[in-house]
Design a protein that fits this description.
alpha/beta, single chain, 7-stranded parallel β-sheet
């Protein structure tokens, strides 16, 4: 591997496992411990990871999301179960918004055989998956294309959403915590998510537990702006209790 490939590998690895030991990374990439340490130093300077004794962990401050194809491979079982559960909340005749993301894609898969639904999304992968389902009424927001995440973002997408009445919006995120709420490292995503908060009757955050405890530079909303949170049961019990004390309807999904 060339240096940029090694650093991408390390960043993907700590996204999946939260913590990685230097000897394990060296063995996986067939390089020396010193090479791994140099790569970690570069990633740390970029604010992506934090060195710990004998290894590395993901930084709490999220500077960059993984590409869509890379995110799709992480925590897939959790995302599938969250997707099935989320689909069970949808009632016939509703207008449903699916935010861009790999977890919301699993919701789309679970809704694909339903009838009498209108699906609105900014995600190209979701639209492509549902395109041959004539019983569904489909809308894509359009707007500025985020090629890394196969979606549309920015003001044009947000303006379309503000013309609609959404019954239930499933909102994705790469980072959320108790102090900062829902956040993102990418400014252009904020407008779309905030437009949803204005027009949706029910606002549901969908996220596996690996994304909790991180925050990006741009704040979308406090957690209290949401109605429900769907997450796997690996979320710490103390956090689950605090979320419920804030009046949020937490759906803790056991795999």
């Amino acid at each position: 591997m060339i240096p940029s490939e090694r650093r991408d590998f390390i960043y993907r690895h700590v996204h999946e496992y939260q913590l990685a030991a230097i000897p394990a990374l060296a063995e996986l990439m067939s390089v020396s411990h010193m090479t791994v340490r140099r790569d970690i130093r570069v990633l740390e300077e970029q604010g992506k990871v934090v060195s710990v004794s004998g290894g590395v962990r993901l930084s709490d401050t999220l500077r960059q999301e993984l590409a869509y194809s890379e995110k799709a491979r992480l925590h897939h079982r959790h995302k599938c179960e969250i997707g099935k559960y989320a689909a069970s909340l949808v009632e016939d005749g509703q207008v449903v918004y699916l935010d861009a993301g790999t977890t919301t894609f699993e919701i789309a898969r679970s809704l694909a055989e339903r009838f009498n639904l209108t699906i609105v999304t900014n995600d190209f992968s979701i639209i492509q998956h549902l395109m041959n389902k004539p019983q569904l009424n489909l809308f894509h927001t359009g707007g500025q294309v985020d090629q890394r995440n196969y979606s549309c973002v920015g003001n044009s997408a947000a303006m379309l959403l503000r013309t609609l009445n959404i019954d239930i919006a499933f909102i994705s995120t790469s980072s959320w915590d108790l102090a900062h709420g829902v956040s993102t490292p990418h400014e252009e995503k904020v407008l779309v998510k905030q437009a949803l908060l204005e027009v949706a009757r029910r606002r549901v955050l969908v996220s596996d537990s690996s994304k909790f405890g991180k925050y990006g530079m741009f704040r979308v909303c406090p957690l209290e702006a949401l109605d429900d949170i769907l997450c796997d049961a690996a979320l710490p019990p103390a956090v689950q209790q605090q979320l419920r004390e804030r009046g949020l309807h937490l759906h803790s999904i056991t795999l």
